[in-house]
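Exercise: predict the structure of this protein bound to protoporphyrin IX containing FE.
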Amino acid sequence: MTKRQLALIKVMVFCACLGPLVWATIRAFGIASTSLGANPVEELLHSMGKTGLNMLLITLAVTPVRQLTGFNTLIRLRRMLGQFSFFYVVLHFFVYALLDLRLAWNTLAVDITQRPYITVGMLALVALIPLSITSTNAMQRRLGRKWKRLHQLIYPIAVLGAVHLYWQSKGELSAALTYAFAVAVLLGYRLVHAAELRSRRNTRRPELSPSR
Ligand code: HEM
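Solution:
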């Protein structure tokens, strides 16, 4: 793939990732007879939260899909997808803090400490911050091996995201269970793949060691 083609793909993915925000803005301003419905703040909160979680799962799916299909270009898009996931989760948080709670910091503090689904959501958001900050080439070089270990935080974050969704679903479990299943499949794939690599390395090691 040429540099130009890659740049074009990146621009297309970037525009697609902005889609949910553009659509929410169109609905918020009632353009072309659209609307956010009877409860606009709740609708906005839910749509930003769902987009954040979807982007998180898409980011996690990049490596397995690349390994299974051989479409290596995908890896060049992973960072952007991860950053968009963080972006939407931050918007989700701001919709809650600014539009829903109207910056009532005491209420936010009570929610974070006393409503388990908010506690879990906040933990996931805070854990995403170092991943977002260190997702540049320079930081990857600087952190070396530690970078990979740090970015493995994405798995517990995805679990927290699924638990957050489950805890606030109020009896409507189908979406929460679908997300939980998707997270389990992606994590399961990673664990099986890591075990395979380890066993391949172990079987190769005796051949490499010098014969006595
Ligand atoms: C990685 C972090 C997070 C993810 C992936 C996430 C995702 C979601 C999703 C998917 C929903 C459900 C949307 C729906 O049912 O349509 C949701 C709901 C919600 N989230 Fe989050 N969220 C995160 C963090 C947070 C944080 C930090 C807060 C607030 C401090 C928060 C507050 C809420 C609230 C208030 C709801 C709505 C609950 C209700 O309708 O009763 N979330 N979130």
